């Protein structure tokens, strides 16, 4: 969800599979964020913002999986 998580995965991932890793919001390029923020620091609106980002990225990911198979 964020660059710290991505870095941890990259350190464990075999080099020939690195290209498969990325940030979740790469599937939501038209949003205002590149990482999923921690909703606890966004006040009451933080949770709404995060769920909106996740829903947008999820829809795009599902489309990508459907057409990439």
- The residue-averaged pLDDT reads 93
Order of helices and strands: HH
Number of strands: 0
Helix content: 40-55%
Which stretches are poorly predicted, pLDDT < 50 over at least 5 residues?
A: none
The shape, in one word, is flat
Strand content: under 5%
Coarse structural class? mainly alpha
The biggest beta sheet is recorded as: none
DSSP helical segment count: 2
Task: Please provide a written account of the structure.
The longest helix has 26 residues, at 43-68. This protein has 69 residues and is mainly α. It has helices at residues 3-12, 43-68. The chain has a domain at 25-69.
List the helices and strands and how they pair.
Layout: H1 3-12, H2 43-68
Note the main attributes of this structure.
mainly alpha; 2 helices; flat
Short synopsis of the structure:
52% of the residues lie in helices and 0% in strands. It is mainly α.
């Amino acid at each position: 969800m964020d660059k710290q998580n991505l870095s941890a995965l990259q350190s464990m991932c075999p080099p020939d599979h690195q290209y498969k890793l990325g940030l979740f919001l790469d599937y939501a390029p038209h949003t205002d964020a590149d990482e999923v923020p921690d909703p606890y620091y966004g006040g009451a609106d933080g949770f709404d913002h995060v769920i909106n980002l996740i829903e947008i990225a999820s829809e795009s990911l599902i489309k990508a999986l459907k057409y990439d198979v």
